[in-house]
Design brief:
Length: about 325
């Protein structure tokens, strides 16, 4: 069974799962797993396909969450307008940051991306009048779907939020799948494998990395909007390094540069994160150990346990694939 079919099967199983799950806490864990899968998929576009280690990814998550919170509470806009606005704001920020930082290589990019997220968190923490500082935004309204004055769905219930999260996750995975099959996705893989060789065959590393960076920012912003409306609260901690670290662990443990990897990583890491909230001080240490073990014994992630890729008769490298007609 191919990776794409496994992903479709998992989504189909998730669609019927609420019929067998009545516990509200289990539903909460599943909804948070959808959120973490969206976040890790967005980071995977940068880490998995381009090969750049972005430690400031939480900045785009936080921008999306705060955009949605401000527009819904201050301007009274519905969730369905806040959601795309969150993606646009986060994507615009990713474009501005990427245009500067992606020209740098190695640890320079890593440090500046981390510094951007920390500076943004500091600004939010100290913007008491504008963004309520450390108090954050409470009472963010839950989405609702109405037609002609009649409420068709009230997403205050976990069952409705579950399917909203599943739909957004499916859309995120589809966007990532389309990116991976596009010329930009193939070019990004070529850049990851060998930047100099990619440049030699006419691939612009900066341009392909920037497209992946912006796409990842947009998807992270959308995930942030979902997060804010589900928890009905957003504070400066959403910009913290812990979210980036969690997403990075999901990508590495699941399998970077794959569609299935972030899903597996989110299921393992995301649920464990929620279960270990009572031991908050120790959980990052636990995941640090898990990350080291994963890198040592499963360098290709959990997806490598599913199948060892059998050689395909006409397998092409990313650079060779770019010279052939794209398959849509």
């Amino acid at each position: 069974m191919t990776e794409n079919r496994i992903v479709l099967l998992l989504l189909a199983l998730a669609a019927v799962l609420p019929a067998f799950v009545g516990d509200q806490y289990v539903m909460h864990l599943l909804i948070m797993t959808f959120f973490y899968a969206m976040l890790s998929t967005s980071l995977n576009l940068i880490v998995g396909y381009v090969g750049e280690l972005s430690l400031g990814h939480a900045a785009f998550l936080g921008l999306g969450a705060y955009t949605s919170a401000v527009l819904s509470t201050e301007a009274g806009l519905p969730f369905w307008l806040c959601l795309p606005a969150a993606g646009i704001v986060a994507g615009t920020a990713a474009l501005a940051v990427g245009a500067i930082t992606l020209r740098l290589e190695g640890h320079f990019f890593v440090l500046i991306s981390l510094a951007f997220a920390e500076v943004l968190r500091y600004v939010v923490m100290n913007s008491v009048e504008l963004l309520r500082g450390p108090l954050g935004y409470p009472n963010i309204p839950a989405p609702s779907l109405s037609f002609g004055g009649t409420v068709l769905a009230d997403f205050a219930s976990k069952a409705h939020f579950y399917y909203l999260g599943l739909a957004l996750l499916a859309a995120t995975l589809y966007a990532a799948w389309r990116f991976a099959r596009s010329s930009f996705g193939l070019g990004a893989l070529a850049v990851r494998e060998n930047r100099r060789l990619a440049r030699a065959v006419g691939i612009d590393p900066f341009r392909h990395a920037l497209v992946a960076f912006v796409a990842g920012g947009v998807l992270a912003g959308i995930a942030g909007s979902f997060y804010a409306h589900y928890l009905t609260f957003v504070g400066p901690e959403v910009l913290g390094f812990s979210f980036t670290l969690s997403a990075l662990m999901m990508v590495v443990i699941g399998g970077r540069g794959t569609l299935l990897g972030p899903l597996l990583g989110a299921a393992v890491v995301g649920i464990t994160l929620e279960l270990l909230r009572s031991v908050n001080e120790a959980r990052l240490s636990i995941f640090g150990i898990l990350l080291v073990l994963a890198v040592m014994f499963l360098p290709d992630g959990l997806v490598s346990l599913r199948w060892r890729r059998r050689p395909e008769p006409a397998e092409e490298s990313p650079t060779e694939a770019l010279d052939s007609p794209l398959r849509s």
